[in-house]
Amino acid sequence: MSNPLLKPNDPRFQKPEIRDAAGQNQFGEAQPADSKSAAKEGVFAAAATDDARPYEPRFEAHQASRVVLLTTLASIAWLCGVFGSISLTGFLSLGWILPLLGIVPAATAWLLGHEELKTIQTGAIDESARPGTRRAYWMGFIGLLICLAVMAAMIWQKMTFLPDVF
Question: Residue 88's closest CA among 152, 142, 147, 150?
Fold first, then answer.
């Protein structure tokens, strides 16, 4: 043996005996003596009582909601999209770096909002966080669309990547 602490016939590692001294299965179910009780106790006998209910999982609120983070990320994306659209008009020459940078928080808010909505549906986050999470989810999605649309318009107008500083 590879382990010197184990003995060859160690009882801790032996399989238990299935039959008792009388030759009966120790782990088998006891058979009822009369046939009437055998007919009553069938496969579905446990379901007939009120005590035997199916298992219903109950979750406590294990996770904290991230509504503030999601709303902040979505708001940053909206601001980047708005400033990018202002630079489209020529009023401010900010370049298209802002809508490019706004894609990351927008996509993050959208995807994290989706995951949090699934977690709320399973019951791991309190149900009261659903409206704020849904609002942040849609704000992130719309912010992503705004940033992508502004970037597409800037590419179509052949704007420069960085703002005109000099």
Answer: 150
74 Cβ contact partners less than 8 Å away, ≥ 6 residues apart: 105, 106, 109, 110, 136, 139, 140, 143
Give the helix/strand (H/E) hosting 141: helix 130-156
The Cα–Cα gap between 36 and 84 comes to: 82
The residue among 126, 107, 104, 106 whose CA lies nearest residue 116 is 126
Q: Tell me how far CA of residue 62 lies from CA of 65, 119, 124, in angstroms.
A: 10, 10, 6
Q: Express each pLDDT in 70-111 by its tens digit.
A: 999 999 999 999 888 888 877 776 666 888 899 999 999 999
Nearest in space to 145 (alpha carbons), one of 91, 83, 78, 90: 78
Per-residue pLDDT tens digits for 112-125: 999 999 999 988 88
Domain boundary assignment for the chain:
72-156
CA angle, 114 then 119 then 122, to 5°: 130
